[in-house]
Amino acid sequence: MNLHPEIILSSLIYALLGIIIFCVAFYIVDRITPGHLWRELIENHNLAIAVLAGCVALGICIIVAAAIH
Q1: In the chain, how many domains are there?
Q2: Residue 1 pLDDT exceeds 70
């Protein structure tokens, strides 16, 4: 299997694009949830919020991966 520079560059661009879209989407979810998501996670150690944030992150990743693929 030959890895051409174009293939590597396009893979890196898609990966960067996916990370940017994920960060923007997670920021939007953070803003629309009531309260402060990170404060609940870090200071209060709220397990329910951690599970919610993890599920949201996985969902966003699946959607971004399917859109890019």
Answers
A1: 1
A2: no
Assess if residue 9 is contained within a domain: no
| φ/ψ of residue 54, rounded to 5 | -65, -40
Give pLDDT tens digits for 6-61.
888 988 898 898 889 888 988 888 888 888 888 888 899 999 988 988 998 899 88
Per the domain annotation, does 37 fall within a domain? yes
Task: Judge contact between 26 and 60, C-beta under 8 A.
Answer: yes
27 within a domain of the structure (yes/no)? yes
- Whole domain around residue 40: which residue ranges? 17-68
Q: What pTM value is reported for the model?
A: 0.72
Per-residue CA distances from 37 to 11, 14, 24, 25 (Å): 32, 28, 15, 14
